[in-house]
């Protein structure tokens, strides 16, 4: 039953073990791990075994009430010392022990004992504390999980570059199937290669930032161009699971989320996932020659000077805490909050979150955990930021078939929830459903290819990445680096990798139509989605929960299949801004607005309108980044001195553990 989470124990297949060598990734010998796709974890796991790290507690405020409904930036009206004393008093009264207290958004504090418990144990503590007259609300600080699965698949090393050349799944649907987004068609449109007259000339491209809230990033040329030094932040707050030797810090580098020995039944020994880098690689060129090749995501057709990826590290060993996710979301969108390391100077218009946990996010009680997500997402919408989140990869009791409904926060109102398809447009076996009928849930649903492994055929198992051919198996991980010296390369599949494709198209749309609101942006994506095709698989039956590989319906796979070209076309026709780009925003120095000329424009990935301007902007960027990094580090140092307050255990009479 647990094979879907760490892959240990089921023989017969091989999964890549990743190590870092000299700053680059290398794919070391695989371990005998679980069934195909069983290396990582389903996003929704066993209810009884989910982990939590303490509680998020908001004390009552004499000045303001119902704080969940107030802005994220609200601070308690009394002093930090008063908050500490009141927290100690309340927890003493209710016999709830804690060792660490630190401020977080919404005027609340995270308290915990320095080690994980089960969610059930934390809920019991929360229930006690909620009875205290000085407590406004208590939310269990659950740990959410990445929505990826991984397999290793042998190809010859020399197939690497050739595989890029035939990387059809990111090209035209006619070559692959109706499950793919058709990025090549969008690329052609943007470059007028095959659709003359379809875009105005010149076409202004505005800067756009896509934040990837995940396990952090690794260095790779394709990625580094879009994640300049000083870009991003690390919100993994607990040192013991951060693996980088500290809590919050300005460096979002992924130190690995490996675990040497079992921590719990749901967090057993595993190799590093490099999940964040894999997700980010869906946004990046992944190509040696940007003039002829494109990466999987629409971002690869925008020059790096226009479209940036903001790495926001929220996931460490065993997953990502809700409190860290909430803080990461707020920070990424440029929202201030209690405990923030400073306001993000490069706010993201799109946030990709390929993490999730159980919950339909429909609890409207302002004191519930759902409310934290709902309020945060609503706040982000007011900033013009769309949250795109993976629907998750099935339930732990049935990893092979997905389950009905997306995980949280994909299930939250206002979120673009993305499920995964096979190349032919049928729902991927493992993928959770998303409801595109908008009947009640309030989230938006879309689908796009995310890989599958339903067939014993290795070719079929990697259809997303290989275009149904084993020699094309170069995937979402990074080119070259992903193959070991035996020619085995690493690929992943999952709703984790469907979501960033939607995020990329959202960014593409915003780059030509920067004034769109979140609702308008969502409308462009949903209305241009292709109706679900009808491949041979039987229809998804939500009532019977037979939602393995099945023919999509709107109720099972969202409004349709993401169509990159149609979305771009709609954005240009209906929304493209005219005139020269002018940026009043603080982060303008990171970017160079681009103006694409219609005729003879070559390459979508690297061409700049004016190299001189690019150079000047680069110099400005470096100066700005240096200052920003210095300031971030100074703020982080300052925050570290005040963030964590340790209360001696012997003062906590009657603590639970
Ligand atoms: Ca850290
Ligand atoms: Ca770090």
TrEMBL record:
GO terms for biological process, alphabetical: protein processing
GO molecular function, one term: serine-type endopeptidase activity
GO cellular component: membrane
InterPro entries: Peptidase_S8/S53_dom, Peptidase_S8/S53_dom_sf, Peptidase_S8_Ser-AS
Keyword Cytoplasm assigned: no
Family: Belongs to the peptidase S8 family.
Name of a matching Pfam family: Peptidase_S8
Domain (Peptidase S8/S53) ranges: 208-531
UniProt cross-references to PANTHER family, sorted A to Z: NEUROENDOCRINE CONVERTASE 1, PROPROTEIN CONVERTASE SUBTILISIN/KEXIN-RELATED
Signal peptide: none
SUPFAM superfamilies per UniProt: Subtilisin-like
Keywords: Hydrolase, Protease, Serine protease
Name of the protein described by the UniProt record: Serine protease
Active site positions, chain numbering: 214 (charge relay system), 275 (charge relay system), 496 (charge relay system)
PROSITE patterns cross-referenced by the UniProt entry: SUBTILASE, SUBTILASE_SER
Taxonomy, superkingdom: Bacteria
């Amino acid at each position: 039953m647990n094979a879907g989470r760490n892959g240990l124990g089921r023989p017969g297949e091989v999964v890549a073990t990743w190590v870092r060598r000299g700053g680059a990734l290398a794919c070391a010998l695989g371990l005998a791990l679980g069934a195909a796709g069983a290396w990582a974890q389903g996003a929704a796991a066993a209810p009884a075994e989910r982990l939590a790290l303490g509680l998020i507690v908001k004390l009552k405020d004499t000045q303001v009430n119902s704080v969940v409904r107030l802005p994220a930036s609200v601070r308690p009206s009394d002093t930090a010392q008063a908050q500490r004393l009141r927290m100690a008093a309340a927890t003493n009264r209710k016999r709830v022990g804690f060792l660490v207290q630190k401020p977080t958004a919404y005027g609340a504090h995270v308290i915990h004992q320095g080690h994980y418990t089960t969610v059930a144990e934390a809920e019991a503590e929360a229930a006690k504390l909620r009875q205290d007259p000085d407590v406004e609300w208590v939310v269990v600080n659950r740990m959410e999980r990445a929505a990826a699965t991984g397999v290793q698949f042998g190809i010859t090393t020399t197939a690497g570059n050739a595989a890029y050349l035939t990387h059809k799944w990111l090209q035209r649907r006619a070559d692959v199937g109706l499950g793919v987004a058709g990025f090549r068609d969008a690329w052609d449109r943007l470059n007028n290669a095959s659709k003359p007259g379809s875009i105005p000339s010149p076409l202004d491209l505005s800067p756009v930032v896509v934040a990837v809230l995940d396990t952090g990033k690794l260095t790779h040329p394709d990625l580094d161009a879009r994640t300049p030094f000083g870009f991003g932040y690390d919100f993994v707050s607990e040192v013991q699971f951060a693996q980088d030797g500290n809590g919050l810090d300005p460096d979002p580098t992924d130190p690995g989320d490996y675990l040497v020995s079992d921590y719990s039944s749901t967090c057993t020994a595993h190799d590093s996932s490099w999940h964040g880098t894999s997700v980010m690689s869906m946004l990046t060129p992944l190509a040696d020659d940007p003039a002829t090749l494109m990466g999987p995501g629409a971002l690869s057709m925008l020059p790096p000077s226009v479209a940036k990826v903001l790495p926001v590290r929220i996931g460490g060993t065993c997953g990502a805490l809700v409190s860290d996710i909430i803080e990461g979301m707020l920070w990424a969108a440029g929202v201030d909050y209690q405990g923030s390391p400073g306001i993000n100077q490069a706010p993201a218009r799109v946030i990709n979150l390929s993490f999730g946990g159980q919950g339909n996010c429909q609890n409207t009680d302002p004191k519930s955990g759902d409310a934290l997500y709902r309020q945060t997402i609503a706040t982000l919408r007011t900033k013009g930021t769309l949250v795109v989140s993976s629907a998750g990869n099935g339930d732990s009791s049935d990893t092979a078939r997905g389950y009905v409904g997306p995980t949280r926060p994909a299930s939250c109102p206002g979120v673009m929830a993305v499920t995964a398809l096979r190349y032919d447009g049928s729902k991927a076996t493992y993928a959770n459903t998303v409801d595109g009928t908008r009947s009640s849930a309030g989230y938006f649903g879309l689908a796009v290819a995310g890989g599958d492994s339903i067939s014993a055929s290795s070719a079929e198992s990697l259809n997303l990445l290989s275009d149904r051919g084993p020699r094309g198996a170069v995937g979402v991980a990074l080119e070259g680096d992903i193959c070991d010296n035996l020619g085995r390369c690493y690929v992943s599949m999952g709703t984790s990798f469907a979501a960033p494709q939607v995020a990329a198209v959202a960014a593409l749309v915003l780059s030509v139509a920067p004034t769109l609101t979140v609702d308008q942006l969502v409308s462009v994506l949903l209305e241009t989605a292709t109706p679900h095709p009808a491949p041979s698989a039987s229809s998804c039956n939500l009532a019977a929960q037979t939602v393995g590989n099945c023919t999509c319906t709107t109720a099972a796979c969202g409004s349709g299949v993401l169509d990159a070209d149609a979305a771009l076309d709609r954005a240009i026709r209906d929304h493209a801004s005219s005139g020269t780009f002018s940026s009043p925003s603080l982060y303008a120095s990171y970017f160079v607005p681009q103006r694409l000329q219609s005729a003879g424009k070559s390459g979508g990935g690297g061409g700049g309108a004016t190299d001189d301007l690019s150079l000047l902007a680069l110099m400005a960027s470096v100066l700005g980044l240096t200052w920003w990094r210095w300031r971030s580090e100074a703020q982080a140092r300052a925050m570290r001195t005040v963030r964590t307050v340790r209360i001696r255990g012997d003062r906590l009479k009657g603590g639970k553990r």
